[in-house]
C-alpha cells in the first residue's frame, strides 16, 4: 500500500486505542490506518513485549507509536516493532503530559527539531516500513509559523514518510494534558500552509474533527485526516468511512454480525485470562444517537464489568437495543 492511500487514520490515544479497541474499529472500516497507544521505547526494549505489542492480524494496517528521544533506543524499538508485524512506526512529538516531559519526549521535542530528525534517521536506517512523526503546531511561546516549519524541514530532510499534525499548540507550562486537548485554539490554516509549502510530502491533519463530511473538506487541503475522540465515542461513524473517503461500495452496519464477532473475540480474550470489560469498554458508544443506545450503554457499564461476566452480556445488551427498535417501529 502506498502511503498516499492512508486518507484516514484513527489517532493514538492513551488508555483508549488498545488492541481491543482497534479490533472493534477494524470491523467498521477496512481501510483506515489504526494506531496503537504510545509505547515508550525503553518499555519495548526491556518490557513484556507480547503484552505491550501483541495485536490481532485482523488489525492491519496498524501503526506502532513510540515515545522517546534517544535515537538508538528508538531504532531498536522500531526494529522490534517491525518484527512484530507493524505496518508503520510513528514517533510521538505531540503528547503534552507531565510524564512525557520528564522523559524528554512528546511535545517538548518541538523545541529540538534537530534531535527529532536524528531519531527519524536512526529509525529509517533500522526498518524497511514507513517511519512517520505526529506533532503539534508548536509549544508554549513558540511561533507556530516558525516552529512547525523548522520541525517539518528537518524531518522531511531525514526522510520521514509522513507528518501528522495536531492543529493546536501544546502549553506544557500551565495546562493539563486534558486541557491541552481542548483549550488551545485549533488552527487548521497553519497545517494547510505547511502543505502548500511542501506539496510533494504527505501531511495529515488531526484535532477536533467530528464527522466524515469535515474529513472530506480537509482532504481538499491535505493528504490525510486523523480522527480521535469522535471515532472513539461514536465508532459507528467509521462504518461510512470506506465509502465516503475511499470510494468503496456503501454498506449498512450488520450490527447482529458485529456483536457476534465481538462476542467471539471477547470469549477468546476471557479464555486467555482477560475480562469482558477489557473489550466492551470500547463499545459503549456503538449505538450513539440510535434507539436503545442508553440501555446498551447501561448494560455494558454495569453487567459487563462484573467479575466473571461472559460474552453473553453483549448479546443481552444488543437484545435490549433490538427490543427498543421494535417498540419504536410498532
TrEMBL record:
Its cofactor is FMN. FMN binds at residues 12-14, 65, 134, 166, 206-208, 228-229. The record marks 92, 178, 181, 294, 297 as: Interacts with tRNA. It comes from the Bacteria. InterPro entries: Aldolase_TIM (IPR013785), DUS-like_FMN-bd (IPR035587), DUS_fam (IPR001269), DusA (IPR004653), tRNA_hU_synthase_CS (IPR018517). Keywords: Flavoprotein, FMN, NADP, Nucleotide-binding, Oxidoreductase, RNA-binding, tRNA processing, tRNA-binding. It is an enzyme of class 1 (oxidoreductase). GO terms for molecular function: flavin adenine dinucleotide binding; FMN binding; tRNA binding; tRNA-dihydrouridine20 synthase activity; tRNA-dihydrouridine20a synthase activity. Residues 10-314 form the DUS-like FMN-binding domain. The active site is at residue 95. It holds the Pfam family Dus. Its EC number is 1.3.1.91. It catalyses: 5,6-dihydrouridine(20a) in tRNA + NADP(+) = uridine(20a) in tRNA + NADPH + H(+); 5,6-dihydrouridine(20) in tRNA + NADP(+) = uridine(20) in tRNA + NADPH + H(+); 5,6-dihydrouridine(20) in tRNA + NAD(+) = uridine(20) in tRNA + NADH + H(+); 5,6-dihydrouridine(20a) in tRNA + NAD(+) = uridine(20a) in tRNA + NADH + H(+). Catalyzes the synthesis of 5,6-dihydrouridine (D), a modified base found in the D-loop of most tRNAs, via the reduction of the C5-C6 double bond in target uridines. Specifically modifies U20 and U20a in tRNAs. HAMAP family: DusA_subfam (MF_02041). Belongs to the Dus family. DusA subfamily. NCBIfam families: PRK11815.1 (NF008774), yjbN (TIGR00742). This is tRNA-dihydrouridine(20/20a) synthase. It comes from Pseudaminobacter salicylatoxidans.
Amino acid at each position: 500500500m502506498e502511503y498516499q492511500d492512508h486518507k484516514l487514520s484513527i489517532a493514538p490515544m492513551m488508555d483508549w486505542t488498545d488492541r481491543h479497541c482497534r479490533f472493534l474499529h477494524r470491523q467498521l472500516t477496512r481501510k483506515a490506518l489504526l494506531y496503537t497507544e504510545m509505547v515508550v521505547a525503553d518499555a519495548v526494549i526491556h518490557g513484556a513485549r507480547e503484552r505491550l505489542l501483541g495485536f490481532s492480524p485482523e488489525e492491519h494496517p496498524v501503526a506502532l507509536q513510540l515515545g522517546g528521544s534517544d535515537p538508538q533506543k528508538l531504532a531498536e524499538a522500531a526494529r522490534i516493532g517491525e518484527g512484530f508485524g507493524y505496518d508503520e512506526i510513528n514517533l510521538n512529538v505531540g503528547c503534552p503530559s507531565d510524564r512525557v516531559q520528564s522523559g524528554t519526549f512528546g511535545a517538548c521535542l518541538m523545541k529540538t527539531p534537530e534531535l527529532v530528525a536524528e531519531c527519524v534517521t536512526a529509525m529509517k536506517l533500522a526498518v524497511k516500513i514507513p517511519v512517520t512523526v505526529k506533532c503539534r503546531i508548536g509549544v508554549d511561546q513558540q511561533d507556530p509559523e516558525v516552529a512547525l516549519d523548522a520541525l517539518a524541514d528537518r524531518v522531511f530532510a531525514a526522510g520521514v514518510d509522513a507528518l501528522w499534525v495536531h492543529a493546536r499548540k501544546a502549553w506544557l507550562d500551565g495546562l493539563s494534558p486534558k486541557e491541552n486537548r481542548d483549550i488551545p485554539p485549533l488552527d487548521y490554516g497553519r497545517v494547510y500552509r505547511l502543505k502548500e509549502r511542501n506539496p510533494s510530502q504527505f501531511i495529515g491533519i488531526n484535532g477536533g474533527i467530528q464527522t466524515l463530511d469535515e474529513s472530506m473538506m480537509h482532504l481538499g487541503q491535505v493528504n490525510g485526516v486523523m480522527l480521535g475522540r469522535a471515532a472513539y465515542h461514536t465508532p459507528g461513524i467509521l462504518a461510512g468511512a470506506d465509502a465516503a473517503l475511499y470510494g468503496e461500495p456503501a454498506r449498512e452496519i450488520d450490527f447482529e454480525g458485529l456483536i457476534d464477532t465481538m462476542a467471539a473475540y471477547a470469549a477468546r480474550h476471557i479464555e486467555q485470562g482477560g475480562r469482558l470489560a477489557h473489550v466492551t469498554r470500547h463499545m459503549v458508544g456503538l449505538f450513539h444517537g440510535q434507539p436503545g443506545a442508553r440501555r446498551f450503554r447501561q448494560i455494558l457499564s454495569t453487567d459487563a464489568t462484573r467479575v466473571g461476566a461472559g460474552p453473553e452480556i453483549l448479546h443481552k445488551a444488543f437484545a435490549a437495543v433490538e427490543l427498543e427498535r421494535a417498540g419504536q417501529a410498532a
